[in-house]
Amino acid sequence: MRSLYFILVMRSILIILFFMLCFVSAKSQKWQPGNFTDVKGNRTPGFIRLYPGGKSPIRDEGFIEFKDDEKTNPYKLSASDIRSFVVGRDSFVVAHAPRNEAWSLQETDFVQVVLDEPLKLYMAKAGSGGGGGVHIEPGVSAGYGTGGYGGGFGGGVGISLGGGGGRGGKSAKAVYYYGETTADMQRITDANFEDIMVEIMGDEEQVVDNIKEHKFNLKNMDKLIDYFNKSVASHKNQPAQ
Q: What is the distance between the alpha carbons of residues 26 and 134, in angstroms, rounded to a whole number?
């Protein structure tokens, strides 16, 4: 009797997870207002789809899909076609895989500019392994591939959106890099976390104090970024003296 009850409960949980994954998949496929800047510096507004499926137009490069307006046919933009693109509040730039790292199946792909400071903070969605499918931590998966930057980094922290040559073997996770440009970016590790984040966020004394008191680390980087942004915004909202 208990075994039957357990099976029914697990089946219900899996059904719920299935619909959650379908929702994530559908959301990732939405067209969003944005713009891209080509290699000549020309900026073009329109609509961007971050996670298109299918094959990359250029081997070993990530890609996005773009259309000029909601009624026109979309076309693919490979990483070597553009310098950067913006979707909503998020900015992405083209980057090459750092030396001795293979954070995607693509040699050239996109990284998000998380903090645009003199020493910038970049984020990639990385995983390992191959194959398609959607994987969600901890250890529950379903095989509905959607692509990631046309086979790039995956589709969100904790979720790997495989397909289109993307990273699908294991769950995607946020991997952070620092550098003045993507050409010299290096990975942030537990060992260098405090020194690098203090340098990036050095203008916010309270934030720096919290970093030095070890209230933040690589595992809760998202909370640190949110805290930093709120601290910066609070200064902007203060009346001028």
A: 12
| The amino acid at 209 | D
| 140-to-4, 14, 137, 181 alpha-carbon distances in Å | 21, 9, 6, 37
CB atoms under 10 Å from CB of 8, counted, come to: 10
CA distances from 191 to 12, 64, 113, 120, 218 (A): 43, 34, 22, 18, 10
73 phi, psi to nearest 5 deg: -75, 140
State how beta strands 90-96 and 108-115 pair: antiparallel
8 A C-beta contact, residue 71 and residue 113:
no
46 strand-pairing partners:
34
| DSSP secondary structure, 120-150, as one string | EEEEEEE------SEEETTTEEE-----STT
Place 97 in a pLDDT band, splitting at 50, 70 and 90. Answer: confident
pLDDT tens profile 136-167: 223 222 222 233 344 433 333 332 333 333 33
CA 150/CA 109 separation, integer angstroms:
9
Distances from the Cα of 150 to the Cαs of 15, 49, 166, in angstroms?
28, 10, 7
Whether residue 236 is predicted with pLDDT greater than 60 in this model: the reply is yes
Note the pLDDT tens digit of each residue in 116-142: 999 999 998 764 333 222 222 232 222
Bridge partners of residue 98, in order along the sequence: none
Q: Tokens 């090459």 map to which residue?
A: 96
